[in-house]
Amino acid sequence: MGESKNRSQGFTLVELMVALAIAGIALALVSGFFISQSKIFTTQHQIVELQQSLRVRMFLMEREIRQAGYNPGGLTEATADSDGIDNNCDGTTDEIDDTATLFVDESESIGFQVALASTVTFSLDKDGDGTACGEKERITYALNGTTLERNGRPLIANIEVLNFVYLDKNSAVATSIGDILSVQIAIIGRTKKEDPSYNNTKSYANLQGAEILAAQNDGFRRRLLTSQVYCRNISD
Length: 236
What we know:
Elements: H1 2-7, H2 13-66, H3 77-80, E1 112-115, E2 119-123, E3 138-144, E4 147-150, E5 153-156, E6 159-167, E7 182-190, E8 204-205, E9 211-213, E10 222-230
Antiparallel strand pairs: 1-2, 2-3, 3-4, 4-5, 6-7, 7-10, 8-9
């Protein structure tokens, strides 16, 4: 009877402490696993979100640059220079191109107006009325800080590089804006937050093989998208 009574008194203090220690270790392992998986999920989500956003914006740029020079009305630079019409709706008529600015066309002709390494401006006569006016017919893509903008309006943030290379009919780098028949695009975006367990030592190049972003040696994960667009509405 005495032995049975002693056994019914429950756990000893030592047994309880051992049980608590085991439970604590198990909880710590589970918590560590959960935190690790949560970080992996967050990182992967950022990468997927970045890739999808870059693809959508690249598709938009490709589609619109491909339409550069669309000119069903047949407006020529010679006509635009002397017809007395404000063909680009900037408040001035009969503007003439300054040939000294090889990659800027100041005239009212339809096609490329600015063709710089990080900025492109082009026009198209979408409605066939002989003019190129408004944000649907005069389009600029440029990088403002780390925000890609279309006509001054933000499209996507966390963009580090927007790079354009302009090629002529021989697929050589164009020497003036009038020679452009295709455009190579490179865009580099990065995740919103750094990953403290990751060190990005990669450098990035455009389709010409030229480095456009040196290794940053930080925790941001980056993605590079490249494309070449043939401007089917511009003849050589």
